Amino acid sequence: MKVSVGAKTTLYPDPVIVVGTYDSHGRPNAMVAAWGGICCSAPPCIAVSLRPATFTYRNITEQNAFTVNIPSVKYLREVDFFGTTSGIDTDKFAVTRLTPVKSSLVNAPYVEEFPIVMECRLLQTVNIGMHTQFIGEILDTKVDEAVMGADRKPDVTKIQPFCYDAFRQEYYCTGTAIGKAFFEGKKIKTPPDHRRTPDHP
Amino acid sequence: MKVSVGAKTTLYPDPVIVVGTYDSHGRPNAMVAAWGGICCSAPPCIAVSLRPATFTYRNITEQNAFTVNIPSVKYLREVDFFGTTSGIDTDKFAVTRLTPVKSSLVNAPYVEEFPIVMECRLLQTVNIGMHTQFIGEILDTKVDEAVMGADRKPDVTKIQPFCYDAFRQEYYCTGTAIGKAFFEGKKIKTPPDHRRTPDHP
User: Fold this and answer.
1) Are B178 and A76 within 8 A, CB to CB?
2) CATH code for the domain in which residue A60 is found
3) How many domains would you assign to chain B?
4) Pick from B45, B170, B178: which is nearest to A172 by CB?
């Protein structure tokens, strides 16, 4: 039995991502976004939504570039700090003692201590309402050696990313592998009588 | 030390969401999307990206409506089936024995057995590349009583949503609460010498 809770942004899981930018003086900034997600495979793109009042909004529109960093649980405190202070009046990297590194492909900094970064050039800007969506083309992804598995693929149990619960304003962690995609569904067989008659022969 | 892995869509966590639609004959369909995310607070909006070849793409453009369902780990097999078959020739609800229920506010079905659904009307369509992004305004969110906490808020440990690892083509689970948002960061103090001189006085 379902009950209405109103028009709520209740996505589970909702990713916690850190957006890195430079301002017009080359000063690095990092902010937290929970409104974002991959939006295209080719070109590979990720979208982040920001309010126009943010420092990062101004920086992206000026530099046409940003990074999307995936933080580890280990840096929960720093990430929450990034999300609760403004780069307009605070040097967040100095306060948190985290390290900004200039991306090799775009004019934006990434957070050295975070395990994964996607370097993005601004591809499209979509005005929606309170938030504006920036679609970035991912030009390169860099992964910390420390979170690579023996098979040379990133290992989510080493990355230890986390999620945002918008309803409770809480963070929660991720866990372990539970199944192979494009495989689990094969355990379900389609009986012939559940075939549809195509309406476009 | 970071190493380049190429331009990859490596978002962690990446949500597994199920998109519900009707076709022009009123037949319900469900597909899986991993490219999606919340994109605006007001109006509350969620974006899902689809390839034009999909049945759901056609349905959304015809009905201007869709639902975004959050599945539980319990239905991993059914979800993967939704993602590996096409509604063009298969009645996925009949095969999986899951129940389509017509939304109260939009012309789209939701999956009765899944704990959360957001009912969406199509607000914007954004052509990006291989994928087209549909931005839906969330008109209502419905939550199963069974996943409500004692405080009448959804409890993620009862919802048991899961994530997609695009790099490994694997699913992984979510865990428990690890901290309060807008609180953890307060444990970090800003020394006066890390204040920035505003460049817009």
Assistant:
1) yes
2) 2.30.110.10
3) 1
4) B178
